[in-house]
Write a structure and sequence with these properties.
The chain has about 525 residues and is of the alpha+beta class. The protein has 14 helices and 23 strands. The relative contact order is 0.09.
């Protein structure tokens, strides 16, 4: 009898094992080489198979082994071959899969459609199934279109999206992690230099600081830099730091009518300096804040009562530090001015200079104006090649000498400064002409302020996520946050802990996005 029991247990064990194997996911070995490039569609490329197909943008794919294993138990597909693609969509509701193998795929549950095709000696099975009768026609149309889009061989990459297609498609989204993930599908060139791919990756990684992606990418960007010993010695000898540097900037600003400070768009700490200066500049009589990154006519909208920045305010203004800079300026009563040139027939620098003057000092001759510009636009003299940047045009045409402070021209030396801010004057670098005609240089190592009041948070989702906080007071409806700029957002690794900045006696809307832009959590939280 014990022998029979043991024999039965063994048989049952084999049956259970066979059942488990029959239900286990069957991933094709090339699944890991899938790349998903999203623009207004999703371009799926597999470099190992030299395969490319175009998919509707609303299909949510399992893009790694973990998400596949999570999704497979929910799937109602039965497959005889290994899976290359697996996805679902809710509008219309259906499941989609592509398998590889010579076995005939079984009949699927519900309404289904299967299209078999050959590709470079592989037999592909395009499958879709739904439990909704209303979804059948749309499902079949999508499946037919995907099969027709299939490309293979040496030209399989033709027709794929570009980085700027992805950026264009993301303009009305605050799912920055999704956009960063999609841009990362484009390999950085071996000699990356200042490639568009690297710039866009850096930009979106900078929207989610701090994170390892940004640290890696900024390391690539700065990898070829070798400091000049003469400049380095002058920095160490002549710099003033932190509060002393701030006080010197303010003392010079008091004597000026126009203060121009520049920034590099993917170094968000440059906005922290401007935000820190705002209250004290306001007390010195500065009433206008002119911003290169502000889109016209959004300055008029932001100057309305109760206004706050949104995704439509501008491209770079979507970054949290820039958004918070605008909120602080509005709170202090600054009049915001957009001065970017939008006339394609006019030289950009002339257009900027004219807009800046006409929208500030031409209206209010005694005003004091703070201007936030991009990189070289604040150079006060023509370059050796004769180019006149915006500040040069402004100075010559309107006979106003701006106080210019660059955060970019010595930016790569910031690692050699122990301070949050280090300041040098043009006189300190008089024989270093390549750094341009600028009054002062700032080495900016400022970090986002340490959270004093907050709520503990831990990422329990098992994958990296984007955590975003929105001011509850800026939400009028349940869906407003889709068009708003989070006042805090960060890429958070799995199991990572952090403190969410929420002031006492206030509420915030917490939204958690995954790498595909889907909401994993959404709730209002408060700090008692």
């Amino acid at each position: 009898m014990p022998y029979l029991l043991k024999y039965k247990a063994t048989i049952i064990g084999f049956i259970l094992l066979a059942f488990l194997f029959s239900c286990s996911p069957k991933l094709h070995q090339n699944y890991v080489y899938n790349r998903y490039q999203r623009s207004f569609n999703i371009h799926i490329l597999n470099d190992s198979l030299q395969l490319h197909l175009t998919s509707p943008a609303d299909i949510k794919y399992s893009t790694d082994k973990k998400s596949f294993k999570d999704a497979w138990p929910q799937s109602r597909f039965k497959t005889a071959n290994e899976i290359l693609l697996l996805g679902t969509t809710t509008t219309p509701p259906y499941e989609f899969a592509v398998s590889i193998g010579n076995a005939k795929e079984p009949v699927q549950r519900g309404d289904y459609k299967t299209i078999d095709t050959l590709l470079n000696g592989y037999e592909l099975h395009f499958m879709a199934r739904t439990d909704s009768v209303r979804a059948v026609k749309a499902m079949e149309a999508d499946l037919n279109a995907m099969v027709k889009s299939l490309k293979s061989g040496a030209d399989y990459k033709l027709g794929t999206s570009s980085v700027m297609d992805i950026v264009s498609a993301s303009m009305n989204k605050n799912q920055f992690y999704q956009t960063l993930s999609e841009i990362e599908q484009f390999p950085i060139p071996q000699k990356q230099g200042n490639s568009l791919e690297l710039q866009m990756q850096l930009t979106y990684a900078s929207f989610l600081l701090p994170n390892q992606q940004y640290d890696y990418l900024i390391g690539l960007q700065e990898s070829s830099f070798k400091p000049n010993d003469t400049v380095l010695n002058k920095i160490k000898t002549n710099s003033i730091h932190n509060n002393e540097a701030i006080d010197r900037i303010l003392a010079e600003a008091q004597k000026a009518q126009v203060l121009m400070i520049n920034e590099n768009h993917y170094y968000p700490q440059h906005r922290l300096l401007v935000t820190e200066l705002l209250p004290r500049l306001k007390s010195l009589g500065y009433d206008y804040l002119a911003l290169e990154a502000l889109a016209t006519p959004n300055d008029s909208l932001l100057n309305s009562p109760g206004a706050f920045p949104t995704l439509n305010t501008g491209f770079y203004t979507r970054e949290q530090n820039y958004g918070n800079l605008l909120r602080e300026a509005i709170k202090l009563g600054f009049k915001l001015v957009a001065y970017e040139n939008t006339d394609d027939k006019q030289d950009r620098e002339i257009g900027q200079a004219d807009n800046l003057y006409n929208r500030t000092l031409a209206i209010d001759p005694h005003a004091k104006v703070l201007v936030l510009v991009g990189i070289d636009h604040l150079l006060e003299k023509p370059t050796t090649r004769g180019k006149k940047w915006m500040a040069t045009v402004f100075k010559e045409k309107y006979q106003i000498d701006p106080l210019t402070i660059s955060q970019t021209h010595l930016n790569l030396y910031r690692k050699y400064s122990p301070s949050a801010y280090s300041l040098l004057s043009q006189a300190d670098l008089a024989d270093e002409k390549k750094y341009g005609a600028i009054d002062f240089y700032v080495l900016n190592n400022q970090q986002r302020p340490i959270v004093q009041h907050g709520v503990a948070y831990r990422n329990k989702f098992g994958v990296p996520v984007q955590v975003a906080l929105f001011y509850a007071k800026e939400q009028k409806t349940a869906t407003d946050f889709y068009g708003h700029i989070p006042y805090f957002t960060q890429l958070v690794a799995k199991n990572e802990k952090l403190k969410l900045p929420i002031e006492p006696q206030t509420n915030a809307l917490l939204v958690v996005y995954d790498a595909q832009g889907y909401i994993l959590a959404k709730k209002t939280i408060g700090n008692p």
